[in-house]
Fold this protein.
Amino acid sequence: MGGLKPEKEKHEFYMDIVPEFGFPLAIRPRFQLNVIVGSSVDPGWPVIQGMREEIVLPFLWAQDGFSEPSERMASDIAFGLVAPQKLSLAGGVALFALGGALLLVSLAYAAWLRRRATSGAANLGNGDCKEGGDSVYPKLEAKEAANVVT
C-alpha cells in the first residue's frame, strides 16, 4: 500500500505494567479499522464492479488510555510496594505490645486476688466478714464462727 508511513511511537499499542501487582502504569491502546473495497469482495454493487483490484480504506483511527500514572496513582503504587514490609512490622509490634499489656493485666489481677485473700483471712477475727456478706472464703468464715462459739 503506498502513501502510508507508519511510525512505531505513534501507532503501536503499548502497556507498562508493575510486575509486583500486574497493574498498568501506562496504557495506550491504539487501533485502526479498515474497509476492503473491490469487485472481488462484493460483486453485487454496481458502483464497484468495474474496479480491477481491491483497495484497503482506513476509516477509523482511535486511541485511548494514559501515558503515565497520575500523582495519586503513583503514590498509591509506591505505598503498595512498601506496605507489606511496613505493615507486617507494625502488626508485629502491635501484637507484641498487646501481649505485654495482657500479661501485665493478668499479673496485676493475680496480685490483687492474692492480696485480697490474705487481707480477708486476716480480717476474719475482726468481724469484717459478716454472715450473708460477700466473702472470698465462706468456709473459713464458717469455721472461724464455729471456733468463736465454743
Notes: DSSP finds three helices and four strands in the chain.
